[in-house]
Amino acid sequence: MATASDRSRAAAQMKDEKKDGNEKENIWASVLSEVQLKGTNKLSPNQQVVVIGDRESGKTTLVAKLQGNVDPKKGSGLEYAYIDVRDEYRDDHTHLAVWLLDGDASHSHLLRYALTEETYSSTLMMLTVSMTTPWAMLDQLQEWASLLQDHIDKLPFSAEAIREYQHKYVRRWQEYVEPGDELETAQLRRTSRHVDGEEEGMDHLLPLPEGVLTRNLGLDIVVVVTKTDYMATLEKDLDYKEEHFDFIQQHLRKFCLQYGAALFYTSVKEDKNCDLLYKYLVHRIYGLVFPTPALVVEKDAVFIPAGWDNDKKIAILYENLQSMKPDDDYSDVISRPTTRKPAPREAELHAEDEQNFLSRLLQQLQQQQPAPVGISGAVNGSTASPAPAGTGVNSPSAGTPIRGGIQVQKPVDRRSSSSAVPNQMDPIKTGITGTSEGVLANFFNSLLKKSSSTTPPAGMLQTGDRVSVSNSGAPASGNEGSSVPGSPDKLNLVNRPGEVAAELDRLAQSASSRLNPIPPVPVSTNVDNSSSEC
């Protein structure tokens, strides 16, 4: 028969066995719960990003780059888009909703459709500014942050709910760990996932440094500076130096500290930090791995993650500020330029049609050199009739020039005057101007030398000479102005050496003076020819 001590030992043994069984059940239950938690931790389809900023700040182009769209379409008001998110580790994918608010202040009331009480906890705010207007960046950020604060104040939140969102974001800021220690990061994530109350999780956290999260909105915020490729233009056109960009950066980082925001410098044109921005967004929204640390070396590709920055790290930029102080007013140092140099554009040249050019050139030539009137074929290769007596043709002696450099003298009517000097040569009829008297003198000298041997008797012509004489004085048939061998003019000149010598003296005096051509002298003759060979 069992004693009381045996019964007590048996009861204690059964109790221990039951306790061991409960512990085993608790272990398996925890394993199953962890597997179930991992299995149900899919990418949430309710997450969204709200993008705000001024017009021409690059919102549409930036979102199109995150989407992989090469042909962005700009709208107005409140636009909706989405980014395809894939998790290769979990073999899962979802759509991240994106709202783009127009930069016009009149559309700010549309924000109530994107940021509501139900979507507040699943929203990431993105504030965009452009490097093309660095003098306005800080004012734009403060204006949009104030507009966002006014919108949040209008939401039907209780004071306790607002405080809960703020505490949650403070915890997330302080739990930031530099990439590299994966074990510690995983442990912190596991701890934050299983904490029941926010106030309990705040016990082991250190207080925030001075100036950090002084304007805590309880929202995850990312400040994106777009078009950083424009820095080269600022250096060239507006004489920006390295210290100017450091001065801008330190002011932007101080703004981000106040709201607990991350800072990105991006350039869609040069594809800088665009892919990094996408990875950071899915890291902050879905908790995916993000191993990239802060980037502060390249001035146009800066990346400051939320929770990394502080005043001591910002103070490193002060060393490069030579002509300015960190506390100087932003608008005094980065002032709006009075005149901006226009972008150089090469003049576009259009070739004129060849036929149009030639016709225009022909018209100009015709206007500059019109066909002269009353001049024989020595000018234009054609035979022209002499102008009749009494017409108003200008004479070179009168000093009136004719267009084209050609001068026309009044022709002499040999048949109208009987009192004129006989057998006197007409320089215009012979086609010789004042600049060729030497040639004419040589011609007369050659005639004088031949006169002694070749002069026929007066009134007689050599065989082969043809002269048409009319009693009425009408011109003979044939081309007017042509020279007729053995004509009376030629014969009279040859038989009168005294008159030839006088004519040579006159030509010599004219050649020495180089004055205007000799005015025409009417010559009377009974021969019908209008000109002689001379």
Automatic annotation (TrEMBL):
Polar residues composition bias: residue spans: 468-485, 523-534
Alphabetical list of InterPro entries matching this protein: Dynein1_light_intermed_chain (IPR008467), Dynein_light_int_chain (IPR022780), P-loop_NTPase (IPR027417)
Assigned keywords, A-Z: ATP-binding, Cytoplasm, Cytoskeleton, Dynein, Microtubule, Motor protein, Nucleotide-binding, Transport
Gene3D superfamilies, sorted: P-loop containing nucleotide triphosphate hydrolases
Molecular functions per Gene Ontology: ATP binding; dynein heavy chain binding
Keyword Nucleotide-binding: yes
Swiss-Prot/TrEMBL GO biological process terms: microtubule cytoskeleton organization; microtubule-based movement
UniProt entry tagged with the keyword Transport: yes
Pfam families for this protein: DLIC (PF05783)
Localization terms from the record: Cytoplasm, Cytoskeleton
Source taxon at top rank: Eukaryota
PANTHER family: DYNEIN LIGHT INTERMEDIATE CHAIN
Family membership noted in the UniProt record: Belongs to the dynein light intermediate chain family.
Entry protein name: Dynein light intermediate chain
Organism: Daphnia sinensis
Taxonomic lineage: Eukaryota, Metazoa, Ecdysozoa, Arthropoda, Crustacea
